[in-house]
Write a structure and sequence with these properties.
The complex is a heterodimer of chains A (474) and B (183). In chain A, 70% of the residues lie in helices and 0% in strands. Chain A has helices spanning 29-41, 47-73, 88-112, 119-143, 147-154, 170-203, 207-217, 224-257, 269-295, 304-334, 338-349, 353-365, 367-370, 374-377, 380-407, 422-445, 451-456, 465-472. The longest helix of chain A is centred in the middle third of the chain and has 34 residues, at 170-203. Chain A has one domain (29-456): Formate dehydrogenase/DMSO reductase fold, CATH 1.20.1630.10. Chain A has 18 helices and no strands. Helices cover 50% and strands 13% of the residues of chain B. In chain B, strands 2-3-1-4 form a four-stranded antiparallel sheet, with helices on one face. In chain B, helix 4 (59-86) packs antiparallel against helix 5. Chain B is elongated and about 85 Å long. The chains are: A mainly alpha (474), B alpha+beta (183). At the A-B interface, helix 1, helix 6, helix 8, helix 17 and helix 18 of A face helix 1, strand 2, helix 2, helix 3 and helix 4 of B.
Chain lengths: 474, 183
């Protein structure tokens, strides 16, 4: 144990274990409730919120412009062409969906593993999932060019053309994987929020607030019978979301792996995509958590312990990703297939090799060498920087997979290059704006930290067994 | 729903979960059955004390299982029907019933319907949404039940319920307060 570097009077260190605390000492049920409801129910919205919301909203407007122009002109305004028919849209789709995965990991997998520390970052990680899925799902839809005409070959419904979709295509699998993921994430998020909405209803001062939160809380009153069924439902949803989240990025990797394109047709893709998803997702959790805890003074509830743990998860998944990169190259060598071999060489040393080196630096060289250090993992500024770097790196990973494989395939006469247009950039940056706008609305209108789950980890929450035996022993 | 009048029950308020569980046990041992505890977070011991055994009830799990099975079967059947009869595609003479490819959407729908059934099934079993409930009439309920207080309600339709005896029982358990709740 690193007991040396503990300052004796640091209240955030648990003296029994020498670990950082999950929640600062001195909180009671009421003070937690007050602190978290006040953020939402205050009549004085902080000025910084308005500023951030306006900024994010105007960036989201850019998305509106880009998409409107796209619908008017068609996908020709993007940089996609032959041979690179999949450009930014697919890169962004995979990137965004990957970011969403950390939210489900925190809310579902860590719940099943009884990792109580997750409780305070659970809700906003789930919200991050939802908003990331919103941004992700938009890309394949707008990539069809005329989404209103795409419905009949994406969804199996009886139509006048007597046409039905082709279920052997990975793109159809995507439709079901992503739509299920979005639906289950909404249900899980909302069910998880019902008790807190009850709290909001009861603490709201204004009639309007009481009405809105009251409707949303569905009449929750905390009955023990309700709680027990609720707990079962939460566990079941977590148990279902776990295989779901693993399947979603697996299915997305099938979009590539099922194709016979060199560099795509490998069996490492599903696990490597899932690990990459969680890697970038945790990076995004940090990117969001660090400014939010600072702005709303939530350092007591989202502690160094949480940030440290996110760093550890990133370290572990980062190594799986690194293993994936190595396997990719080993596969090219072992296949003894000259196209595969050329693809690996082209990826690293070809005209777009710079993108490969960016990804190596930002996903492996920088984070995986520094995240080992406990001192650095507990340094907020470092974590924020590393989270941005990893997010960039993961975006470039998808760029490398999508673009460099396509630019040079089997036939040298059909080789080409790819250059994104301003509409590509506007759409991508626009989704960042949309994501942030939705997040701003979320932290303003809903409790971003689950109060009912936080109460469970407070010292007063445990039943005193000795007292129970003594008094209820009759 | 007919308008009901009269007393819904007696509501005792406690400061700590332990006091609540002690009181719930004592009331259960005194023979009360129509009762419920209200807590700001799940307290398993409170549910045990009032004799509610969720694992035994299995309601949510059953609904979830049923939803999962039906969802998976529905999608698999739909895919097979489409690919074999409704819109068969002959691609280089490959088989029409390519069930391996159908597993993935069927798997997703298993999870989708199991999840929806678990979530909405839980709400339905809990008789939610119910925006009105007599307990919300109690003056102290809304201030505490969803933040930091623990409540035990002995309901008036329990055969043992009597305003005087039940109140004295509850008061012997040292609550913060005991109030009558009207319908």
């Amino acid at each position: 144990m690193a007991t040396k570097d503990i300052t004796p009077h640091n209240p955030m260190i648990d003296p029994e274990t020498g670990e950082q605390r999950v929640i600062a000492p001195g909180y009671t049920f009421r003070s937690v409730t007050e602190k978290l409801t006040r953020i939402v129910l205050t009549p004085h919205t902080p000025l910084g919120w308005f500023f951030g919301f306006a900024l994010a909203g105007s960036i989201a407007m850019m998305l509106l412009v880009a998409v409107t122009w796209l619908f008017l002109k068609g996908t020709g305004i993007w940089g996609i062409t032959m041979p690179v028919a999949w450009g930014f849209a697919i890169i962004n789709f995979v990137w965004w969906i990957g970011i969403g995965h950390a939210g489900t990991l925190i809310s579902a997998i860590l719940l099943l593993f009884k990792q109580k520390w997750r409780n305070s970052i659970n809700r906003f990680a789930e919200a991050m999932t939802l908003f990331a899925v919103v941004c992700a799902a938009m890309f394949p839809v707008i990539h069809t060019g005329r989404p209103w005409l795409a419905i009949y070959w994406l969804f199996p419904y009886p139509n006048t053309m007597n046409y039905w979709p082709q279920f052997r295509s990975p793109l159809m699998w995507d439709v079901f994987a992503v739509s299920t993921y979005a639906t289950i994430s909404v249900v899980f998020w909302y069910i998880g929020m019902i008790p807190d909405l009850g709290t909001m209803r009861d603490r709201a001062k204004s009639k309007f607030g009481r009405f809105i939160y009251g409707q949303m809380a569905l009449g929750w009153r905390g009955s023990s019978r309700h709680w027990m069924r609720y707990e079962t439902a939460s566990l079941l949803l977590a148990g279902l979301a776990t295989p779901l989240v693993l399947s979603v990025h697996t299915v997305i990797s099938f979009d590539f792996a099922v194709a016979i394109m060199p560099g795509w047709h490998t069996t490492i893709f599903p696990p490597y995509f899932v690990a990459g998803a969680i890697y970038s997702g945790f990076a995004m959790v940090l990117t969001l958590a660090i400014p939010i805890r600072k702005f709303y003074h939530l350092e007591d509830l989202i502690t160094i312990r949480h940030l440290d743990n996110c760093g550890k998860v990133m370290l572990a998944t980062g190594f799986i990703v690194a293993y994936g990169y190595m396997t990719d190259i080993a596969y090219a060598w072992y296949s003894a297939d000259k196209w595969e071999f050329f693809m690996a060489w082209n990826r690293i040393f070809g005209p777009m090799g710079w993108s490969y080196w960016i990804l190596i630096f930002s996903n492996i060289a920088f984070p995986l060498t520094t995240l080992w250090s406990r001192r650095l993992r507990q340094n907020v500024a470092y974590l924020f920087i590393v989270s941005i770097i990893v997010n960039t790196g993961m975006w470039f990973e998808r760029f490398v997979i999508v673009v460099t494989s396509l630019t040079r395939d089997y036939l040298p006469s059909s080789w080409g290059t790819y250059r994104a247009t301003r509409w590509d950039y506007m759409t991508f940056v626009g989704t960042l704006g949309l994501f942030t706008t939705l997040f701003f609305l979320f932290i303003r209108l809903l409790p971003m930290i689950p109060m009912s789950e936080l109460r469970q980890i407070l010292p007063g929450a445990k039943i005193n067994q000795a007292e129970l035996q003594h008094k209820g022993g009759d | 729903m007919p308008v009901r009048e009269g007393i819904y029950g007696l509501l005792a308020e406690f400061d700590t979960p332990t006091e609540l569980v002690v009181a719930a046990k004592a009331s259960y041992n005194a023979g009360y059955r129509r009762m419920d505890c209200y807590t700001p977070y799940p307290v398993e011991e409170a549910a045990e004390a009032i004799g509610f055994d969720e694992p035994k009830e299995k309601g949510v799990s059953r609904v979830c299982l049923l939803g999962g099975i039906l969802g998976g079967l529905a999608m698999f059947t739909l895919e097979s029907w489409i690919s074999i009869w409704a819109y068969p595609l002959d691609i280089a003479g490959r088989g029409k019933f390519s069930w391996v490819a159908f597993i993935i959407p069927a798997y997703e729908w298993t999870i989708l319907w199991a999840g929806l059934c678990a979530g909405f099934g839980m709400l339905a079993l809990n008789r939610l949404p119910s925006p009105y409930h007599p307990l919300f009439n109690a003056p102290n309920f809304r201030n505490g039940a969803t933040s930091d207080k623990f409540f035990l309600c002995l309901e008036a339709d329990d055969p043992r319920f009597s305003l005087t005896d039940t109140r004295s029982l509850l008061e012997s358990l040292r609550p913060v307060s005991v109030v009558e709740v009207e319908h």
